Amino acid sequence: MNKEHDLIPPHGGYRKLRSFQTAQLVYDLTVVFCNRFIEKRSRTHDQMVQAARSGVQNIVEGSMASATSKKTELKLTGVARASLEELLLDYEDFLRQRGLRIWAKDSPEALAVRRKYLSDPSDRSDPSDGSKRSDRSDYAIEHTAPEVAANTLLCLINQASFLLGRQLQKLEQQFLAEGGFTERLYRQRQSARKKP
User: Does 18 map to a domain?
Assistant: First the structure.
């Protein structure tokens, strides 16, 4: 079928999104961090893990919903970003309340984490392909001091939020240029009525 006449456009594909891969890494590392440094029965432990999970799951749900609702995709991508912002504040609170340093975004440590992230083109979302990829232990959360662990996660959350911001801009541009499902449905119905 001609792409112009497709009612249901290609959708999903979230596993290939760098925003999804980064959010998934943040989720995995947050579970490790919370198990190490936050009382497991505390509300904070649960909320941090759930905020990290929400960042991932809303990307997935938005990507799948995009077939019939660009509005829902935009909304859920925004929710994913908001969940990660909530998590970011939890990590800042953790550091501040313990009198630990929060790295400046241009500090040598933050730049090292960002370089590591940028130099890691692996797709952590699908381990079935057998390719060599970094795993969460590459970020040393399992063994490092709380200040380093929390700041590393702050860097990764900021990266995920940046990527989601760019993704939202692109989704907005696509919606303005192509419209949504209702508009495609209307165009196809009009086109079908005009055919002899």
Answer: yes
